[in-house]
Amino acid sequence: MKNLPPPPSRLDRVAIVIQHAEVLADEASDARLFDIADRLRLLASRLAIYLEEAETTSTRVDAARAHRRERATRLRQASTRLGVELEERLAPEDAAGLVVGLRLSPDAVTRFRLKRLTEAQRALLGEVADDCERALLELEVADDRALEATAHAFVTRVRALDRAHALRRQLQRDKNTILAALPVDSVAAARVRRYVVRTRSAESFGRRVELDAA
Q1: Of 11, 20, 100, 128, which is the most buried if we count CB atoms within 10 A?
Q2: What pLDDT was estimated at residue 143?
Q3: Are 105 and 123 in contact (CB under 8 A)?
Q4: What is the CA radius of gyration of the chain?
Q5: CB-based contact 171:24 (threshold 8 Å)
Q6: Of residues 43, 52, 49, the one with CA closest to residue 22
Q7: Which of 127, 91, 134, 132 is nearest to 113 (CA)?
Q8: Which phi and psi angles does 17 have, rounded to 5°?
Q9: Which tens digits make up the pLDDT trace of 128-144?
Q10: What is the pTM assigned to this prediction?
């Protein structure tokens, strides 16, 4: 069985819409419908800007998540070290109450241990406890940045998809206008008729976006 290419991503479809708009703009120019050609080129260039922003923010999400994984690994290492130090430095009866809940997330376990430490125990653990505090803070900051990056990427992605869907509708209208201006049996008309504008719905939460080429 032949290896098939992967299906296009949503943003790949936005790029396809841009290409279609540029092709139809050329057809409009050939038909001397220069207003339509200029408008389509302008809308395609604007959509290209939205697409670039969506792709950039998507890359930032990957970077933020990778950084978050690094911080989570660092916290696990710091938490493991703290567990070892608790058993070695504290009395068995004191350490016993601080090594529970190991099936929970490392950040939950570490917070529990740090909150339960007395001042004397904290001083005894010294830099190990301080390092856990820093690791917790670093993970919290990484979580915030990953969530912020994800939210921003979602907004820019939806905006690009909305504009692409609106441009698809405009392409269909302009296709009909171009066909009306061409001789029915011309090669150009046959070429434009073969052009298919897909009006796949965008992830727009039901919004209907109208394009502004002013």
Answers
A1: 20
A2: 96
A3: no
A4: 29
A5: yes
A6: 43
A7: 132
A8: -60, -40
A9: 999 999 999 999 999 99
A10: 0.74
